[in-house]
Amino acid sequence: MPKNYKALLERKTALDAEINVLEPGKAKALQAAHQLVREENRDLFGAGPLRQDTGRYRNPKTGETWSGRGRPPRWIEGRDRKPFEA
């Protein structure tokens, strides 16, 4: 292993060049993996479908929103939720 500063800098330059050659391939591979996960709608470990967004509901009178989780607010409780989808 080189011991002097100049030799280490030359080695660093060579390694940086190798990294730059490999990096575009890595980015393409990650993009392909993300696309496959989106298309299959599965998590990376195959445990099942990804959790779907619960949606958002908006009160047209006040602009208040509800995520669809937990106890429903009074303005939507017992009503059809479709007209309130945001």
TrEMBL record:
Residues 74-86 have a biased composition (Basic and acidic residues). Gene3D superfamilies: 4.10.430.30. It holds the Pfam family Histone_HNS. One of its GO terms (molecular function) is DNA binding. Transmembrane segments: none annotated. InterPro entries: H-NS_C_dom. Residues 56-85 form the DNA-binding protein H-NS-like C-terminal domain. SUPFAM superfamilies: H-NS histone-like proteins (SSF81273). Residues 43-86 are annotated as: Disordered. This is H-NS family nucleoid-associated regulatory protein.
